[in-house]
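Anyone? Bumping this.
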Amino acid sequence: MNLPSALNLVEPLDRQTLGERAYARLADLLMSGRLAPGEKLSLRAAADVLGVSIMPVREAVSRLVADKALEVTPNRAVRVPLMSAAQFRDLTKVRIAIEGHAAAQAALHHDSNNLMGIARAEEAMRLESEADVPDLPRAVELNKTFHFAVYAAAHSPILVEIIRALWLKAGPVINLDLRANPDRLAKGDAIHFHAEVRKAIEAGNSAAAQAGIAADIKGAADFILSRGGLAE
Amino acid sequence: MNLPSALNLVEPLDRQTLGERAYARLADLLMSGRLAPGEKLSLRAAADVLGVSIMPVREAVSRLVADKALEVTPNRAVRVPLMSAAQFRDLTKVRIAIEGHAAAQAALHHDSNNLMGIARAEEAMRLESEADVPDLPRAVELNKTFHFAVYAAAHSPILVEIIRALWLKAGPVINLDLRANPDRLAKGDAIHFHAEVRKAIEAGNSAAAQAGIAADIKGAADFILSRGGLAE
DNA sequence: TGCCGTGATCTGTGATCACAGTTAGACTGG
DNA sequence: CCAGTCTAACTGTGATCACAGATCACGGCA
């Protein structure tokens, strides 16, 4: 190991396996709500769309099933799980606890990079939602960007990973709805809470950051529940 | 659906897939620390041991990799991840936050069934650790039983699932060590904290339940860290 | 008209094969 | 005795095939 000396900046040639890419693709579909609860997913059809054999898709799906972001029914059919109102309430409570905790940690442990990322993400989403004709899919994406910018500031990879898994479950329910209803975005609740969270984190006020995230999550969840589209 | 009339008590023939069984087996090995960090795992060898082809093992492993309970190195070798001290501290902090939260919820939402389960689990582990020659693997198992009896009392399936994933990561580090060192078990810290947790939950004292679990987790983690076996 | 058998077609699961990349060890040349 | 090379045995990944079970539409019987 004596010679190279020069280019140490060669990144290790990210050899992404097809399975990983398939996973990333499907996970994105779920998180952004383009796959609706109850919707079925055929391995072969998905493989066809992705232009690969079913093997990579199988790996991706088995991961998502492990995360309970997908489920395979006793009748051998893969679909995105239907969520009962009770389950959704449970999920929301857990999200408030964990994401709230992450926001509080972010207020305590952030660095300047984090602040910049959070501020930029907040502004991007604010601009989009104040546009005359907001691009809803883009708003959903920007909302995610903002939240994860906050959580990244907690400097806890494990926490971020857990939250990602939660979003994988919540995405189909929440974002499917948001896509169909510009109303709530226009109302500006999310924008308002996001600003509060940003200011709280900048001020190092962990309790306020936690409360802001909790209010944001609860607001969206109550909106979904009030529309009564959930089973049982 | 008019005719059967007779046996309504036929359980739906739990068709467990080979992949699931392989997953359960490997997950158990990890959680109980029988697979040490850094240890390599060959798909074909594992398939051979389990008496199946490599397909079910592949599914099981890809799930565990998704959970970061296993990892596949850039050189194509699956192994139990090595954990740095920093990562272990992060994991411990997250565990304290989440499992503490679950214990607090358990104190608030438990029912009598839960109390019975918790009391029974606590006693079983106390008896084992007070034996002349404690069966360490069994003690590890009973410790897990107790903790999950507590978390089940929170009545939040999602929370329990998250904690399970955390134990999958912590198992190899913590239980490998515990298996080799009866000292800490004999010292009785865990037993002491468990009793406190049980009493707190029975009394509906959420703060005390949370503190007890936190102390239990922190005690074990500090013990591991003090032995300095972790990298970096 | 209403119901039930039936077969074609689809499902996920599992096994097997092919392949490229890695590793370890014997071997060779200095 | 050590550095280098080459080979043989392994690794996970991906594709393909085989199969049992589920689904659904068609058609005939009541």
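Late reply, but here is one note on the structure posted above: The beta strands of chain B are 40-41, 71-73, 77-79.
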